[in-house]
Design goal:
The protein is built from eight helices and 19 strands. The protein is an alpha+beta fold and 319 residues long. Strands 1, 2, 3, 4, 7, 10, 11, 12, 13 and 14 form a ten-stranded mixed sheet that branches. The radius of gyration is 23 Å and the shape is globular. The two termini are 39 Å apart.
């Protein structure tokens, strides 16, 4: 059987990752469906977790790190009074020694307030953090425990969605680097239950992207290739948080040649040193990211390839 030729397609797919597969497996499945030559994701979800997983194709991979530091929203289901070796339903489950009544709604609300803001969190052994070049989960699988340092994370908001006996459902908005599994365990301990583990986790939003914009793998499988193409967002959709600058033809050429250019008069003096900006041509084509220097010039930070821009120009302005 002859394999289809890989396509140099570029854009951003908001994928609703299903339960039970790794983020890399979801990525590779999407890559096959789009017959794409190159793709990458913007951060992982555990196999048991579902929800929003942005996938970048082609030139969009140059900007995939933009969302790594973005805030995220999760819907988490906690089983209070039990512990898991992995912090979730995939580990070995044991009941804690604590024999206390299930907490009330008010008790839960009062306990959760101590987790809002900047807090310290110990990374779990079952994580992809590296120790001597090897992920911690490799050590954990061999029964080894590596000393770790607690890290500062930010929890913006925790809302109780429901409380049914010892099952607590939460909506959590948090900053980068937060392990919801560890947060669940710490919440259970703070409530006097001895601990807790996750029975369900769904990521519903990253920055300004949410699941209402996402496609499941099943939905994509039932589409034609052209319909899949239409499901992709433009590359610069990842970067709408940055101000935009339109360059005239000469300045667009110079920035693509690696030269610094002067800030346009209408913004000169308004941009701080180190500020990132979206750069566009007079034809409204996204060129990439630039950075403002202390001299109020713009230097190229990360640009789209010449071949991609040439293909765009050929497709949109030929004839």
């Amino acid at each position: 059987m002859i394999k289809p030729k890989k396509r140099n397609i570029s854009g951003v797919l908001l994928l609703d990752k299903p339960y039970g597969i790794s983020s890399n497996k979801a990525l590779q499945t999407a890559k096959q469906l789009f017959v794409a030559a190159k793709c990458g994701h913007t951060g992982t979800l555990d196999p048991m977790a579902t929800g929003l997983l942005p996938v970048c194709f082609g030139e969009a991979t140059k900007f995939s790190s933009i969302l790594l530091g973005a805030s995220k929203i999760y819907e988490a289901t906690l089983k209070l009074g039990f512990m898991s070796t992995t912090g979730d339903a995939e580990g070995a489950i044991s009941q804690t020694a604590a024999t206390v009544p299930n907490p009330t709604f008010t008790q839960c609300q009062q306990t959760l307030t101590q987790f809002i803001g900047r807090i310290k969190q110990m990374p779990p052994m079952f994580s992809a953090l590296k120790h001597h070049g090897k992920p911690l989960y490799c050590y954990a699988r061999n029964g080894e425990v590596i000393e770790r340092q607690a890290r500062e994370i930010v929890i913006y908001e925790i809302q109780i969605q429901s409380l049914n006996h010892n099952e607590l459902q939460l909506r959590i908005q948090c900053g980068t680097g937060t392990y919801i599994r560890v947060l669940a365990e710490d919440i259970g301990k703070a409530m006097g239950c001895g601990g807790a583990y996750l029975t369900g986790l769904r990521r519903t939003a990253i920055d300004r992207f949410d699941l209402s914009q996402a496609y499941s793998l099943i939905a994509l499988e039932n589409m034609s290739l052209s319909e899949r193409n239409n499901s992709l967002l433009p590359i610069d959709y990842l970067l709408y948080g940055y101000p935009s600058i339109t360059l005239d033809r000469l300045n667009a050429l110079h920035i693509q040649q690696g030269r610094n250019i002067l800030c346009p008069e209408n913004i000169s003096g308004m941009m701080k040193d180190g500020k990132l900006v979206r750069l566009y041509s007079e034809q409204h084509q996204f060129l990439g990211l630039g950075e403002i220097t202390i001299e109020q010039t713009i230097t190229a930070k990360r640009l789209l390839s010449d071949s991609y821009l040439l293909e765009y120009a050929t497709q949109n302005f030929s004839g």
